Amino acid sequence: MGSSPAGTQESIKFGKDFEVDLRSFELRHGGRALKLERLPLQVLVILIEQKGQLVTREEIAEKIWGKDVFVDTDNSINGAVRKIRQALKDDPQQPRYVETLSGRGYRFIAPVSDAGHMPAPLQLVAKPQPSHTDSAPARPLVEPTSNQPDLPPASITPARRRFPLWIAIISCCAIALGAWFAWQHFYGKGATQSIHSIAVIPLQNLSGDPAQDFFADGMTEELITELSRIDSLRVISHTSVMEYRGTRKHLPQIASELGVDAILEGSVIRENNNVRVTVQLLDGPADRHLWGEEYERPLNGILNLQRDVAQAIAQEVRAKLSTTQQARLREAHVVNPASYDAYLKGRFYFDNGFTKPDSLKKGRQYFEESIQKDPNFAQAYAGLANTYLYLAFTGVLPKDEAYQSAKKLLAKAVELDDGVGEAHDTLGVLKSEFEWDWEAADREYNRAIALAPSYSCAHESRAGFLALFDRRDEALAELAKIDQLDAGVGSADSEVGVFYLLRDYPSLINASNRALLLDPNQWFLHYNLGVGYEGTGKLQEAISEYKKVVEMSDDPKGSVALAHAYSAVGKKAEGEQILRDLERKLKGTADSPLTMAGIYASLGENDKALEFLEKANSEKSLNLPQSLKSDLVFDSLHSDPRFQDLAHRVGIPQ
């Protein structure tokens, strides 16, 4: 970096006629301004500042948001890099500007001129941005700074004070707009009759406290959850809408990108034990207002507020509600405000880190705190149960300990409220992955979808379940539903899992490559891409991907797969060396017998492989059913009657 004083540089030039103007903070090409939102441009400047050097995702997140802030940094960074590449027309497979270093981060590789000491364009706080329409509330872009507290408790909210004048003005305008929309509804044109899909854009935090961003995001997710219960309304998932936080895009563009008829946007003001939510429903393609309303409730009535909004929208779009759905929306529920705060924090850590042990542990702490503060809050029990299952999947907790805890928690959740779709989805996972009770799992997945037809996680769970049993058409139908609800990482990961289980290797390659564009740092995506290559006979490509898995993860699955592929190309000595080293490393440890079975199957020691598979069966090892059906290392055992008998007892098709 240069040593010139801060603020002396006005632009950065790089590549072929690209320039970042640091005064207007925009990207230009040949003097023409390009469309690139603020967050991707911030990421681009960070990468250029460290040109030629690795910049980790953690470094990017800390520079933009600070430490331990309630923001979905992984998805935000993925989306930002994707938009940078689109603006620069940069191919991620053969990059000229931004190179992805798998499992580590990114590196800017283009030549840079005039890259001296740059101003700090990242420390921007609460700069208002234009709204979609003249009558919509202003949409501030709040970028938390690095001195924010780790987990802002409810107690940091200032003592009750008068609302600032600008908030009062916004509220009055919202009330007036609401009255006008109501008049239009009853005496004007009324609501459109063609709304079948909706996206809830992240609610703005107008509390004057950036530490309350997590509350606004949590409210957004809970509104999506409530609306997802309406059978006749397709509701876009939380992960797909988060990239539109603080967006400058016009409504028709957002509606087109998400494929929806209507958009719900609004704001949240939280003061002490009260919350005020202003929402408006807009016709996306036509960019016109349909309905608006303001709600104010004590915090312990937040669940009722969410259901009131859902019911009002159902009426506005003339959605058909079943008797059960109508009764559900009329139910009155109260929750302890501190419990709800803790629940939202638990959801944040789980949703944004269900593959990360540290994030899962924090999520567990907050769900436990939520239950402690309100023992009758069913959603907290369901969230904690789900966290326990994923702590087992990531190897943090012993399988049996996680299973017993989750089983008790789910029983309590259903006892308190049998209408929580998330609880039934998690019950399906428990029945499928831990008990191998296939009929019960199928019932629970169907129950979850019946309770919340737009809950994408339930469709993801059921898609994998159907693929395991070769119910291909039904599994692909679920994938189509997921694609309508979640255009992000969740949809891509679901495709990868389904095509792996169906042993559809060309489709697995395509799905894995698409998923890696969204998230190149997940080792299991490289593993599945390797499986796709190996399944189609492209063994050198498979070996390349398996090597990446070994570099990125300590999971022995990558080493076993690499050794198996080496043997297939005639490098048996290299493959055997890997397997013998792994055998010595794992011998006498508590590692899964499924891994040992894979080692011996790859070595051609079938008797030992079957011995460990039987042990895995007796212990109900996680992923045994999936491995018996689709793991290439066990293909050599398929003709053995002992293997066929085991598969029959587990209950999966051959």
From TrEMBL:
Keywords on record: DNA-binding, Membrane, Repeat, TPR repeat, Transmembrane, Transmembrane helix
Domain (OmpR/PhoB-type) ranges: 9-110
Any Pfam family: Trans_reg_C
Region (Disordered): 127-155
Portion annotated as DNA-binding: 9-110
Molecular functions per Gene Ontology: DNA binding
Spans through the membrane: 163-183
Start-end of each TPR repeat: 523-556
UniProt GO BP: phosphorelay signal transduction system; regulation of DNA-templated transcription
The keyword DNA-binding appears for this protein: yes
Protein name: Winged helix-turn-helix domain-containing protein
Annotated source species: Telmatobacter sp. DSM 110680
